[in-house]
Specification:
With 347 residues, the protein is α+β, with helices and mostly antiparallel strands. A six-stranded antiparallel beta barrel has the order 9-10-11-12-13-14. A two-stranded parallel sheet has the order 1-2. Helix 5 runs antiparallel to helix 6. The longest helix is centred in the middle third of the chain and has 29 residues. The N and C termini lie far apart (70 Å). About 2% of the residues have low confidence. Bound molecules: flavin-adenine dinucleotide. The site of flavin-adenine dinucleotide has 23 residues, from helix 1 and helix 6. Flavin-adenine dinucleotide binds next to helix 1 and helix 6.
Length: 347
């Protein structure tokens, strides 16, 4: 092969190589573009099959400001074909069928792509704490905000379609920049609006009238919180004090709603000190489909030496409802007949 001296060589005539070579030429640099394949374009491949245009690689492109500036500078702006609104309808191949990707709240409710649990998890999105999108993968970011099902069923196919990449390796900020930015600005705005509301209400009604729940060091869960002036919480949020922070990504150890008085239930277990298989609460029978536990919470013996120990379980019934249950009394040591209670619900 003859040797040729060139000022600059660009290797690969895919989208990146073509763009780089064009920019270099525009800057007045002498450039040679080397391509191993028989045609330029890389993974971009357009074919006409029986009168239909088939894109074997990318089919759409999000034209943000830098890309538009490049296309304008190169004189390609007029070549752009805007996607028709009808193409907003996307499908995911799910359990042997093409299912439309849900676009609005109603679409999500009806979509078979997500289970009931996945849909309920979506509803918790407004209360999700801000994370560090700068270091998270796209998968971690979406799973944290919308739940693991959305990441698996919707994000993974979308990113495979767009980047042909692995959502666990693509950075959240790089591929979901608009969403990570929204999280950053929205969170700050919401915190400001809430602080403002609390200040106004407290000034008008008095500090004691506007309260928030505060964690207290206590053994029994129903005593582990108390009402405190909401303005105190705001001061802490502004960094004027320490506030306990829940670990990110871990499943919630405590339910969304804890009953001030645990409610007695009838529970059936295989062995006396085993987890429940089935229980009746408020006259409804629940078959336990999944269970985690026990988490043992000892009684405050320094106050009541005879107080029984509690073994807590996180139970999910066959309909996906999740409960926080406990058995009172250690079988054979503290009691011969354990009592069961529902102490809270997770959703
Ligand atoms: C199926 C699929 C669907 C996609 N859908 C979308 C989409 O809808 N929207 C979107 O924005 N993006 C999409 N993408 C991503 C996008 O197409 C790619 O990110 C982009 O085209 C990659 O361009 P590139 O130049 O970096 O690489 P490539 O397109 O892979 O080009 C690299 C080129 O370099 C050549 N080459 C490699 N090694 C050498 C060598 N040693 N010497 C000479 N030549 C070499 C190769 O032959 C090839 O032509 C999709 C990707 C795939 C695979």
């Amino acid at each position: 092969m003859p040797e040729v001296e060139v000022e600059t060589a660009v290797v690969g005539a895919g989208a990146a190589g073509l763009a780089a070579a064009l920019e270099l030429r525009r800057a007045g640099v002498e450039v040679v573009l080397l391509e191993a394949g028989g045609r330029p374009g890389g993974v971009m491949q357009t074919e006409e099959i029986r009168g239909h245009r088939v894109e074997r690689g990318p089919n759409t492109c999000l034209v943000r400001a830098p890309a538009l500036a490049f296309l304008q500078a190169q004189g390609f702006e007029r070549e752009l074909v805007a996607a028709s609104p009808a193409r907003r309808l996307r499908f995911v191949f799910h359990e042997g069928r093409l299912e439309p990707v849900p676009m609005g709240p109603l679409g999500f409710v009806r979509s078979p792509l997500l289970t009931t649990r996945g849909k309920l998890r979506l509803l918790a999105e407004p209360w999700v704490q801000r994370g560090d999108a700068g270091t998270e993968s796209a998968q971690d970011f979406i799973a944290r905000r919308f739940g693991p099902e959305v990441a698996e069923k919707l994000l993974a196919p979308a990113l495979t379609g767009i980047y042909a990449g692995d959502e666990r390796e693509l950075g959240a900020r790089a591929v979901l920049g608009f969403a990570t930015e929204l999280e950053r600005t929205h969170e700050a705005e919401r915190a400001r609006a809430l602080a403002d509301l609390i200040d106004r209400l407290s000034a008008r009604l008095g500090q004691r009238a506007v309260t928030r729940r505060e964690l207290v060091e206590a053994h029994l869960p129903e005593q582990a919180e108390r009402a405190a002036p909401a303005t105190l919480g705001e001061a802490r949020r502004r960094g004027e004090g320490d506030e306990p922070v829940a670990p990110q990504g871990a499943p919630p150890a405590r339910p969304l709603r804890i009953f001030a008085r645990p409610e007695p239930i009838d529970a059936l277990s295989e062995v006396p000190d085993g987890p429940p298989l089935r229980f009746r609460w408020r006259r409804v029978l629940h078959d336990v489909a999944a269970i985690e536990g026990p988490e043992r919470i000892a009684a405050p013996w320094w106050r009541r030496p005879d107080a029984p120990t509690r073994d807590y379980f996180r139970a999910e019934d066959s309909h996906g409802r999740r409960f926080w249950l406990y058995r009172e009394g250690l079988w054979g040591r503290e009691t011969e007949r354990a009592k069961w209670f529902v102490h809270g619900v997770f959703g």
